[in-house]
Amino acid sequence: MSFICRFAPSPTGPLHIGGVRTALFNWLLAKKNKGKYYLRIEDTDKVRSKEEFKKQIISSLAWLGIKHDGEEYIQSKNIEKHVAIAEELLKKGFAYKCYCSEEEINQQKEKCKKQGIPYVYNRKWRDAEDLKVPNDVQPVIRFKSKISGNTVIKDLVQGDRNISNSTIEDFVILRKDKSPTYQLSATVDDHEMKISHIIRGDDHMINSFKQKQIYEAMKWEVPEFAHIPLIHSENGKKLSKRDNASTLEDYIKIGIMPDALRNYLLRLGWSYKDKEIFSKQESIDLFNLEGVGKSPSKLDMSRIYSINETYIKTIDENELFKYLKEYALNYQKPFDQSKEMTILKSLGFLKNKAKTLHDIWKNSQYIIRNKIDIGSEEKKLINQLSTKIIGDFISQYEKLDKPSRENLELIIKSLINNYKTNFKNVGQPLRIGLIGSKFGPGIYDIILSLNKDEVIKRLKDLL
RNA sequence: GGUCCCAUCGUCUAUCGGUUAGGACACAUGGUUUUCAUCCAUGAAAGAGGGGUUCGAUUCCCCUUGGGACCGCCA
Questions:
Q1: pLDDT, tens digit, for every residue of A195-221?
Q2: For residue A270, how far is the Cα from the chain centroid?
Q3: Residue A45, CA: closest nucleotide via C1'?
Q4: What's the pTM value of the predicted model, to 2 decimals?
Q5: Which nucleotides of B are covered by protein (CB under 7 A)?
Q6: Distance in angstroms: CA A224, C1' B50
Q7: Which of the nucleotides lies closest to A139 (Cα–C1')?
Q8: CA distances from A406 to A190, A256, A412, A444, A448 (A)
Q9: How many Å does it take to go from CA A436 to C1' B35?
Q10: 10 Å Cβ neighbour count for A90?
Q11: What is the side-by-side order of every strand in the sheet holding A159-164?
Q12: From the alpha carbon of A271, which nucleotide's C1' atom is closest?
């Protein structure tokens, strides 16, 4: 059996985290089964579709490492075909022209609202040979949904889903301006692209019942369906654009790495035994639809941070630096070239205190900045004793040929002895002088990561 | 409101009739450590409720409760 999957976003906004997961699952299933994964841009909403969103979606997916096969498919380029199918359905008696004006429909909706009953189109023009066709109304074409019987979808995630056909209204497939609607376009394109598995959010369940009827009317082979549960925000509702971490960009901005997000999204609603960390290859090998749960899952930021932290600590440092550089370039300031080597060499300890690229970037600021700003809290900690200690430290440090952890340790120990004090009273003033904060990397790491002149200069500034 | 669906620690989940209900994140405590962290150890934490079926139910069925999705000439 061949696996041809697709992800079909509409370019009406930035890519949503739920959409990212849908794309991921489609891609994973296609790759696992050596099939194809296509990207289709559903831009038939002429008003809301924007070129910039299309570009953003494509680049977001590229950032995550989800590459589609072939060129991206632009739905609007196939409109003529969609219209032709609408005409064909009309000719074959599976669709009909509806001359209800928008006012008429709105009136009906109002009426239903008043009576407190749900609105369903009344199928007025379904079998209307004797109705007089108004000449001031452009008709829409509606699909003639089945009135009796049931439709069953053998959903690969949800199991058998059964719905009474009477609950499906005669949906519009061609608007009054002769443009196709989603139900039609998506179905025609899925058929033309020979999509074998449609994996999409659970919010499309009803659409699948509608679209299945179109497949059957056209005598097309019906694809397999899998409706994956939606991702809910931390307060349990469907994720909306208002949630502050809902677009991919939101995560990139705070310094989440692509593999970490991929891993998080994979494990959200899917599991494989007790395994938590999956390399890209492992996720392809191990992914399956059977492991996808049926209930929606809530987004958990602390989990995202935690997985990101794991990746920061385990990936190759050159690769990590690549991500860090990109992050700095896009969301902070590009690194000064002369500082790059120092940062790369210091990554070993900078990354130990970081959950995000932003944290690493923050930790590396003392290397980047030439002038150290000392916080007001920290200034209070610099007293007579500490300036004396720093002074002593400088004179001993200056004499060192080549500073090393060992000889630095000797100096610090002698200072502790001479001043009959503890490490804290020696280390803290030094840290404040060198990085401006009492929090930060280990003092030896700091000193060794900076030039000897720079260390002396910074410490003298403190005196 | 109508239709459909879901239900194990706070969160993501394991269990596919017999388990001291397991793991991970978060949380708490202790230890290591030169600060903050890391790291290590330990702990607290769950089968929504009620009926069945069964020798035995978290697991199968029904009801209740709670939660969700859909209900556009948007996609």
A1: 999 999 999 999 999 999 999 999 999
A2: 16
A3: B74
A4: 0.94
A5: 1-8, 10-14, 22-26, 34-39, 67-75
A6: 39
A7: B73
A8: 67, 36, 10, 9, 11
A9: 13
A10: 18
A11: A159-164, A150-155, A224-228, A197-201
A12: B13
Phi then psi for residue A215, to 5 deg, are -55, -45
* Tens-place pLDDT, residues A19-78: 999 999 999 999 999 999 999 999 999 889 999 999 999 999 999 999 999 999 999 999
Nearest protein residue to B12's C1' (by CA)? Answer: A268
Q: What pLDDT was estimated at residue A24?
A: 98
Most confident of A205-219, A226-240, A383-397: A205-219
Q: Which residues pair with A73 in a beta bridge?
A: A40
Summarize pLDDT for A254-296 with one digit per residue, the tens: 999 999 999 999 999 999 999 999 999 999 999 999 999 999 9
What are the angstrom distances between the C-alpha of A128 and each of A106, A124, A131, A167, A177?
21, 7, 5, 21, 22
CA separation for the pair A57, A76 (Å, rounded) = 17
Q: Round and report the angstrom distance from CA (A7) to C1' (B46).
A: 36
CA–CA separation, A394 vs A398, rounded Å? 6
Q: How far is the CA of A308 from the C1' of B71 (A)?
A: 40
Nearest to A61 by CA among A45, A42, A37: A37
Rounded Cα–Cα distance for residues A192 and A173 (Å): 17
